[in-house]
Design a protein that fits this description.
It is a single chain. The protein has two domains: about 200 residues, 3-Layer(aba) Sandwich (Rossmann fold), CATH 3.40.50; about 170 residues, Glycogen Phosphorylase B (Rossmann fold), CATH 3.40.50. About 45% of the residues lie in helices and about 15% in strands. It has 17 helices and 13 strands. The strands form two sheets. Strands 3-2-1-4-5-6-7 form a seven-stranded parallel β-sheet, with helices on both faces. A six-stranded parallel β-sheet has the order 10-9-8-11-12-13, with helices on both faces. Strand 2, helix 2 and strand 3 form a beta-alpha-beta unit. The two termini are about 20 Å apart. About 50% of the residues are buried.
């Protein structure tokens, strides 16, 4: 077996929120596929990160080597610093041939003695003002961008993110590889009203009403949830549907609860908090529509999962969402509450559109798979190794 096929791959788990975000869904899907392919080719896998991060993916790491960072590096800022200066050296000491950074827009590295492949999901600090606190904005705008420039191979999860990375780094068009996210088409499927998954989802929602679902972290201003609340309050959906917000709190929940009370939406809006992974497919399949109206998404995985389940998607016409949903999305201007309300009305009331989403959504979603993503990432890792060998020869 050739050296090009055999590799010892180090995978950093930092920046994926201990398994509680969209980035964690990405790693949950790809870790077992990457490890299986590498082991079948005679290689090996190393996972490195904080204990909490490694524990979140323990089911996918059987047989893989683990490198646990010291407790001193647990705080987020120090953990980012460790990745910048030490992740590559730690992977090299463990005998890794290449380092994969699945969340490089949060945890990048510099001066790595082994080749690096950096996956960028978005460059939100360059697109959304005051998305994070000033320190994190500065880190994203300056430190991350500088570190990405040192990666051997850059990967973006969408064409929109690719364009952002190329512009930020002054790279020519097409120099960043695009490997789109996938969807689990066995878990996200259309369902009937009597499906056990849908019954459980409605029990979890705690309302007899049909519902519109937002799936993601509760974050302001990036996820644009205040405008979604206002649009829902002014739309006919308020009289017929519940609005369900499902996701971990990233600082916006107190603001959202106050606005829900001010708008008199206490009975119509449900905040479910973070949900276990096995609860999500049923919640998506049971929704009348899924709403993703963030100011700028680097991909928008819940939109693809909604299509796989044949559900209409209310989506911003900014960022990567238009390329993910295509003409199966009810697109809106995320800065215009009336536009969001009109898109909600279309998603819930346009029978022809809803029928088309149910018929064509699963096939569109099936064109993107996690298996293709895993194959693409391994090819990127081999390319990074080959580039390094050519530079040294």
């Amino acid at each position: 077996m050739s050296h090009a096929r055999m590799m010892k791959l180090a995978i950093a788990t930092g920046g994926t929120d201990h398994g509680r975000s969209g980035l964690s869904s990405y790693l949950h899907a790809l870790l077992p596929r990457l490890r299986r392919r590498i082991e079948q080719a005679g290689g090996a896998t190393i996972a490195l990160g904080r204990r909490a991060d490694l524990d979140a993916y323990s089911a996918h790491l059987r047989g893989a080597e683990r490198l646990v960072t010291r407790d001193a590096w647990r705080p987020a800022a120090l953990n980012a610093l460790w990745h910048l200066g030490a992740a590559g050296r730690a992977a090299a000491r463990a005998g890794a041939d290449v380092l994969l950074l699945p969340a490089a827009n949060r945890r990048a590295t510099m001066r790595s003695p082994i080749p690096t492949v950096a996956v960028v999901h978005d460059l939100a600090p360059l697109r959304v003002k005051r998305r994070y606190d000033p320190l994190r904005m500065a880190y994203g705008r300056h430190v991350v961008v500088g570190a990405l420039a040192t990666a051997d191979v850059l990967v973006a999860v969408s064409d929109a993110t690719r364009a952002d990375v190329e512009q930020a780094l002054g790279r020519p068009p097409g120099s960043v590889r695009v490997i789109p996210n996938g969807v689990d088409n066995e878990r996200f499927t259309p369902a009937t009203d009597d499906d056990a998954r849908v019954r459980e989802a409605r029990r979890r929602v705690g309302s007899d009403r049909p519902y519109v679902l937002y799936l993601g972290r509760l974050e302001h201003p990036g996820k644009n949830l205040l405008r979604l609340l206002h649009a829902f309050a002014e739309s006919p959906a308020r009289a017929s549907h519940a609005l369900v917000l499902a996701g971990a709190d990233w600082g916006a929940e107190p603001m959202l609860r106050a606005e829900i009370a001010r708008l008199g939406l206490d009975r119509e809006v449900r905040l479910l908090g973070f949900l276990p992974d096995d609860a999500v497919p049923g919640l998506v399949a049971g929704a009348d529509a899924v709403a993703m109206v963030g100011l700028y998404e680097g991909f928008g995985l819940p939109a693809l999962e909604a299509l796989a389940a044949g559900r209409p998607v209310v989506a911003s016409r900014t960022g990567a969402l238009p390329e993910v949903v295509g003409d199966l999305g009810a697109l809106c201007d995320p800065l215009d509450e009336r536009s969001i309300a009109d898109a909600l009305a279309r998603a819930l009331g346009d029978t022809a559109y809803r029928d088309r989403a149910r018929r064509e959504g699963p096939a569109r979603a099936a064109a993107r798979s996690w298996d293709r993503a895993a194959d693409g990432l391994l090819e990127a890792c081999r390319e990074a190794m080959a580039m390094t060998r050519r530079r040294r020869s």
